[in-house]
Structures are given as C-alpha cells and as structure tokens.
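Hi everyone, sorry if this is the wrong subforum. Our group has a chain we'd like a structural model of before ordering constructs, and none of us has done structure prediction before. Sequence below.
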Amino acid sequence: MQFSTRTTPPGRARADCALVPVLAGKELTAGGREIDAVHGGRLAKVIRSGDLPAKAGSTLLVQLDGHLPRALLVSMGEAREAAARAFTDAVRGALQAAGQLAADEALSLLHEAPVTGRDTEWKLRAQVLTGREIAYRFETLKTKRETRPVRPKRVVLPVSAGGAFRAAVAQATAIANGVDMARELGNLPANHCTPAYLADTARKMARELGLKAEVLDVRQMQALKMGALLSVARGSEQPPKLIVLRYQGAGAKQPPIALVGKGITFDTGGISLKPAAEMDEMKFDMCGAASVLGAMRAVAELKLKLNLVVVVPTTENMPGGRATKPGDIVASMSGQTVEILNTDAEGRLILCDALTYVQRFKPSTVIDVATLTGACVIALGHHRSGLFSPSDALATELLEAGNEIGDGCWRMPLDEEYQEQLKSPFADMANIGGRPAGSVTAACFLSRFAKGYDWAHLDIAGTAWKSGTNKGATGRPVPLLANFLLARARG
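Answer:
Right subforum, don't worry. Here is the predicted structure as tokens:
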C-alpha cells in the first residue's frame, strides 16, 4: 500500500473510491462538502438517512459517478473532535472496507477530521502507519500465496500545500519500512533466522544504505572476555555473533546514540528447559534485535542528522552437553562475575556484555530493547512496553515519543532496594532475583553494566508479538524508537 500527497482539490480528483469522514454522525468536512456538491448532494442525503453507525470506523458505501465512482462514508465517532484512538480506529475501518472493493486507488480525506491535540502531519502519519500495518503479510515461506491483492494499492492524501505534509508521509513510510523489516525477521522460524542470518541481513542493509557494518565472531568475543554472552551460546551448534552497525548523519564529534537489541534467535530455556506448550513462539525472542535493526533502517532512509550505533548480541539458547548449568559462574566483559541460577534468564547475560562493549563508542544515550521477562507481561499486559531508566529526562522523552505515535510504554521502578534480590554468596551477583518484581530485578541487573551514559531499558515481552489466531511479530517498538530519534535529530 503506497501513500502520496496531492494538491488537486477533492472535487476534481480522480480515484476509484473516496474515504470521506463524517463528524458526529452528521457533518462533512470541507473536502467532503466539495465532493458532495459535485455529486448533487448525494452524500448529505445518505447521512441524513441515519444508516451510518456512530461507532468510529463504521463505513457506508455510496455510489457516485464520473471520475469518482463511489465514496465510503467513514464515521469518526460521536464527538465532532475525535480522540487519537478513535481516529486510528476510523482509519483502520475505512482502509479495511476499501480493501473489500476492487479499488486500486483511494482518495482519503480522513486527515480533514479534527483530532484532539493532533495536527495534520500527525493525521497523515497515522494513516500511513495504519495502512501499512493492515497491508503487511508474511508469505516468505508459503508455496501458495494469497491470490487476493492488497487493496487499495495506492492511497492519495489531498493537501493544500506540499512541503511539510510530504515530509510527514515520507517519515511515516520510512518508519513503516522499519516495522515491516522487524516483523519479517521476527516471523521467520529459527531454522531460517539464525545468528548468521541476522548478521548477513545487517551486512546487506549496510551495503544498501551506506552504513558501516562489523560482525564479531566467537574468537573475537573470547578476546574481549565476553564470558556472559558466550555462556548462553555454549549449548548451541549455531555460532554466536555480535553485530555492530554504524550510521553517521552528523559530525564526527557528536556522540552517537546507541540501540542494543537482544537477539536470541530461539530460546529453549537451556538446561532450565521451558514447557513445550507455545515454545514455538520463542522464535520471537530476537524481536529486540529486529526492532533496533528496523529503527536503523528508518533513520538511514530519512538521513537524520544524528549519529547512531546499533549493537546486536545474537545466539540461540539450547540445552546440550556443553550448555551452561544452573550454578555455573561466569565473568562478564566488565569483569563482574555472575552466578547463573536459571539458564532461562539468558537475555540479560548477552545484553550485559553488549552494554559494556558499547561504551567504546562513547555514546550520549543507550537504549536496550529486549523481550526480557514474562513478569513484564503480567505487570503491563500486551498494550505497553515496560520502560526502566534512572534518568527522568530520558524516560520522559521515550514516554512522549511512544504516546505521540501510538506505541506506548510505561515507566517502571528501578529503586536501589531491588538490587538486594540479586545478591549471591558465590559471585558478584546472581542472574535472577526470585519471583517478586521479576522485570524490575532484570532491569536492575542490566543497570550494573550501563555506566558512563544515559541509559534506558525497554522490556517488550508483552508487545513484540501476538499469540493466537493472528500470531505474529508486531514490529514494536520501531515506531517509538524512530519517533524518539526524529525528535533528537530535530534538536
């Protein structure tokens, strides 16, 4: 689904179908009135019939003629000014209804509807992101692909002027490209998406977008004394990788922002073996890695004026004769020792060495992203990611970036008292802190390695994928990260 802006007045536009917003069940916007006037008041007459339900996203097809043969009336809800959620619901309903028509091109006037606290650029971005989400299909490994094409193929957004509105659509398109990439990587099974596959994907993206790529192998990680990361990889036949991607959009003296993504391409739990039920979903345990790669794609496509480093520690977590055992003690790259009480708490072990490694880039800000704890799902469900940071300013930036783009997170505590749960009689720390506040103690563990820079941790265990009938990766939190980086680039 492709989106573009056009300055042609709606009344003179050509398309297979128009998406016309209806406010408070009775009022057309300016563009809607223009189309209505061209077609003899047909839209207003249908609205007066009361057949359009008030719920946001409800639609009613109206047959027209000439260069615009039909229109979908789209309810924006009962209030004249819609809430942001109601607007995205309306966009979703409109595009899904348009998809049932044999319409290759749709003219969308939905951004003419007023939305509380949101400007036109936001409404344009929301249409692009929602439309691309609807259009995404994972068919990479299917021999028989869906025969019904994605429709509408093209969505035209009429605007009064070009510049800022075209930029908003371009931004949303780049973010959607990053989301699609993250979803594609997340949805691939673990026999396809191995650590080597992620490394090859990063190299390919570097060639395509002019990035610098480096992939560290086992010997290089051994030389760096990454004992925590390597302990997770011991049971797997797949060699681990440490992927580093660098984008320079600003001067060399400007400190980079760093994104670190957990890349466990399959998580059995290791010797602390998981239950068999739903273990197939552990292919999604690399969604942190997928999301930071997706965010890098968005940044590079938009040529943002900032410097960005992406670091992905990636391995499988498998049982085996060489696998790390509960009670083993390993030395991390930082020199701190860790007693591994549970081999299924492996994400923090690969991240801690990556958080130490990233210090060499002298970053101003580091954000790690990980499907880290089931405890975060219990705490927040599947709507918001968990946010942990000792920095009020950084936490506020991330909260605002997520809320603005509809990819929300929620700040969780990181109080010093929780560190007590990580005490070990045999090492500097244990890798788990018991059942209470499991997502908090996991973040506390990471905080011990995140020194010398502003740091935040996003636990996306509840938001990175969906289970059930619509099982699949969501691409979150690419929109949050990209929106945060856009704001940083604007200064």
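For your construct planning: Residues 19 and 108 are 5 Å apart (CA to CA). The chain has a mean pLDDT of 96.
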